[in-house]
Amino acid sequence: MGDARRLLRSLVSLSTGEVMSRLFGFTAFALLARRLHPDDYGAVEFAVALALFFAMVVDFGLETIGARSIARNRDEVNRLAAQIPAARLLMALIAIPVMGSVAIVTGQPEQTVRLVWLFSLGLFAVPWFQRWLFQGLEMMDWVSIGQVIRSAVFCLGVVIFVRGPADVLAVGQVEIMAAAAATAFYLVVQQRRVTPVRLNFSATAMRGLYRESASVGLGQIVWASNQYFSTILVAALANAVELSWFAASQRIVFAVVAFSWVYHFNLFPSLSRNLAGSPRAFDSLVRASFRSISWLGIMISLAGVLFADVVIRVVFGVAFAAAASPLAILVWTIPVTLLSGHARITLIAGGQQRLLLASQLVGVGTTLLVGLATIPRYGATAGAATTLASYLAVWIAAHMFTIRRIAPLPLFGVLRPLAVAGTVCVLREIFAPSSLMAGVAALAIYVMLGPLLDRRLRADIGQLLAARRAKPAPLPTNNSGVENR
Length: 485
Description:
Elements: H1 2-35, H2 38-59, H3 62-72, H4 77-105, H5 110-121, H6 131-136, H7 140-161, H8 168-193, H9 203-237, H10 240-257, H11 260-277, H12 279-306, H13 308-316, H14 324-330, H15 333-349, H16 353-405, H17 415-431, H18 436-453, H19 457-469
Helix pairs in contact: 1-7, 2-4, 2-5, 2-9, 2-10, 3-4, 4-5, 4-9, 5-8, 7-8, 9-16, 10-14, 10-15, 10-16, 11-12, 11-15, 12-15, 12-17, 12-18, 12-19, 13-14, 14-16, 15-16, 17-18
């Protein structure tokens, strides 16, 4: 019972910190969209995408390895608390010049290049983000507080220092301030509550860490490639305005997609236990989850399509109205992510992390093929379609690997809610394409038709709730790097 309470408290703490930090971040970028020229806003999003990608390069799976090691043996705390920051610092020394060079190679304007270099300096903070240390010691409150501090400082810096288009480089300076604030917090907590802050550059130790973290680190880099390659391709192959439209729509969708891990985190113990002990129970649970998530995920996408223009104008302002079209495409990544999660977590539960990595590589290949073929001509809209195609490719590959190696999974249950959503969308376009009330009515019709057309939907939801009340199985380490952020 004590373990369950600690797990619940940790989950609540992390979820609360995640929500608060994302609210601060979303507010900051909504302000940036209103205070900067669209070209400059696109430059900021480009720099952010590169920074997020290269932050995973700097970490290289060491966060996961460190947390797992000290959770198993707390005598490792002092050694790893000195060795992991040193190993990440060396990775930062490699990542920073490469990140700056990407801006130059992709032909970005001088001001964008300078902004990217400023954001790259923030990577020096990543080695000192000792979240893994607190995670392994079950000190989740400190992880959440550090996340909130970084986002809050960034948001406050934007409010104070970014007043207009002339202040675009100030965004990079604010990013450095936010990273420094979070670094200071983590180091103070480590010094006072865990172990003294120090570095150990033992070559032998670091080689061992890199070998151990390589599979996780490569998985993280591939996952990050799926997330951010479309942004980089739009920046390189289209113009700054198209990048702004794409990045604005992507920011809205990613704010929702990022929480898909919460659902699958909660589903994983029951799914893993049933996969090992009762194939029939596994099949029943995964089918119930698939049907329920099909109706819910497509409902979210339907709302995104119906109200894309309204959402863009409210969040980013009238100047970003053109981002509504990419948003109407990108919202379909939400149900794809939720539904593909069944295959992805089943691969993890079945010990097939390498096949999950292969699925992610299929997504990267799809991004490159579709993006290179379409983005030069269609800009932001093609960027959105490229992202959706990549997510679909990951789903298809993971699904095929799962049914061949582990267990059968549902697939066609998505057709009924998809057909209903398509029908109400077409009717709205025929009879009242610009009416907000017609959009509300179309969404209401979809919600009402769900339980009527799928009589098992209520029972499925009840089964999922009952599964969550069952005793959870221990979660294995996620070596895929897909859901650990």
